[in-house]
Design goal:
heterodimer, A: mainly alpha, two-stranded parallel ribbon, 13 helices, globular, B: alpha/beta, Elongation Factor Tu (Ef-tu), domain 3, Rossmann fold, Ubiquitin-like (UB roll), 5-stranded parallel sheet, iron (chain B), oxidoreductase activity (chain B)
Chain lengths: ~350, ~350
Amino acid sequence: MATLTDAEADELARELDELRREVAGDLGEADAKYIRRMIAVQRGLEAAGRVALFGSSRRWLWWGGTACLTVAKVLENMEIGHNVMHGQWDWMGDPKIHSTTWEWDAAAPAYQWKHSHNVLHHTYTNVLGRDRDLGYGLIRMDPRQKWRPVYLLQPFYNLALAALFEYGTAWYDLAAQVEIGESSEEELRRQAGDILRKVGRQVAKDYVMFPALAGRNAPRVLLANLTANVLRSIWAHQVIFCGHFPGDVQVFEEEVLEGETRGRWYQRQLLGSVNIEGGPLLHVMTGNLSHQIEHHLFPDLPSNRYVRIAPQVREICARYGLPYHSGPLVRQVGRHWKRVVRMAFPGGR
Amino acid sequence: MTTGSGRWSDAGAMLGAAARWLTTPLLPEDYLGWVNPLWSAAQLRGRVEAVRAETADSATLLIRPGRAWAPHRPGQWVRVGVDIGGVRHWRTFSLSSPPRRDGRITITVKAGPDGFVSSHLVRRTRPDTLVHLGLPDGRFVLPARLPRRALFVTAGSGVTPVMAMLAQLAAAGMTSDVVLIHSAPTRDDVIFGTALRAMAARFPTMRLHERHTREHGRLKAADIPELCEDWADRPTWACGPPGFLADLAEHWDTHGIGAALRQESFHPLRYAEDDGDGGRVRFTLSGKTAEAEGGTPLLETGEAAGVLMPSGCRMGICRSCLTPLGEGTVRDLRTGELTSGEGKYIQTCISTPVGPVELRR
């Protein structure tokens, strides 16, 4: 993979570290306002959606309420939850907006997700056998993964995974631990209990409590909540799959991890990530994972900063002759699906 | 009657539980605090209603605390959290008023020469600002049964907790025989100068000695017998800088009446010098101690000492090693940046101690 010499990789690390230091040193009032406003908007949308749905016998209130709730859930998961749990806002010293205390409106308990995502995925990005985000253990995404006949169905169950993505991620960390074999049976049982409790509360809220409060509108509220949850899951799945799989991003063998320097780690993050091009609305709705490259280089820098440092990162890539994968949403979604379909069959490019 | 109120509180508890189901994974609190910041019981806040200048470099802030506030005793202190540049900073201040009927509290702040937070509070805080509050704490208070005689010895902003006690005594008619010896650079630098002088003029049982150090030199413990003959017979409350208090403590001790002296001191946060990383690390929960070399991450120091340290990737990206800092200062090995402040979370995998450090592990 290495097109860079060791000295060049060290120089790359120095430049990117410097960029990181610049941004971290510049954080202030405006950034704090951004996340607080985002949280206020999200809570406002959720409250408005829930209230509107009480009147969901009127068609426009059902559609409006469902739209508000869907957008609220997307923001809650992506621009707020994902980023707060990365510690992007820990610098503010606000115990409420902090990676140690944040719990999100999704089936996966925060502490388990932080392990599977922050520790496993972000450390071992795109390393075969170590990064379980490569197909989530279900989907063959690389020709080096051994083909099995069940993969013929993967275009279909990738769709199912998208719709149920929230529940997939809930069990995902547990599955990773079983695979690694480091956790005791007791520990696994405790964590499974935590998942079931969290799922129970989530299900009770969206499919029992809120419908019950709506009286004769109960079925409509239930359907609206189901719609919001499924749409949020599908959207999150698309964005996440667009982050590392479309086109010719690189997948690595485990050997790269041996004695990997900071520069080589940066290089791996660059080669394994893909950006989505679009406007501010797209960036917010993807939790700024449209700047997957910047996010993977600096996972704990606040998301609102990625858009501003992207030109610098792109320039650095150009100077070192490293690819900077980027494309519009439709093309990236198309490429990810093309790969899912191609890898369903034996062999591969 | 009790069954009736029991039923009501049961209903309240059930309503609370139902609301928690609806707001999960948040708490109903999170929405209440969103409607009105002072309603939150989980995050105590206060609204600054007025800022009154006391001297050129000090001011009194009148604050309406949220509903979770617990009434304080005069002389106690409170932790105040202020957001400056998006970052929350916590400092401790004496409450300068006795409990008031309108529920407001006051703190009186002196802007120190390098006091980042105190300067902000004195010079840049406007009415309507929200601050974060802890609960009142501290044992520097008057006994429940007011003393017949008392001596207060204060320097600079050390007069603030004593002001609250004097106001309490004044409210009770100043039946006690009270002496206040206060030291400040000049007459104009006396915090609460006007109020103290008025109080002394109003109550014959109160005597006020102002010592203006610019003119008459620093106040020493040895000067006190001259200013208050029966000092040794009076229970004494003293507040001021550490050196001042040490002098007093020694004086009282050599006369064998150390127990009669009650002290309160606020030493400013010590920022570590740039020379020499490394130091003694105390793990307060496990009770273990280790010597750490500069450059060695606290995670490794803790593991070597047999402390259970959570960790993830060890590269400073995953944040699973976050640990609350007690006293001390640490350096980020990647950026060289220093962090201190009790309760701040630090990443042990990329932090090394600068001087003695306490970690809650």
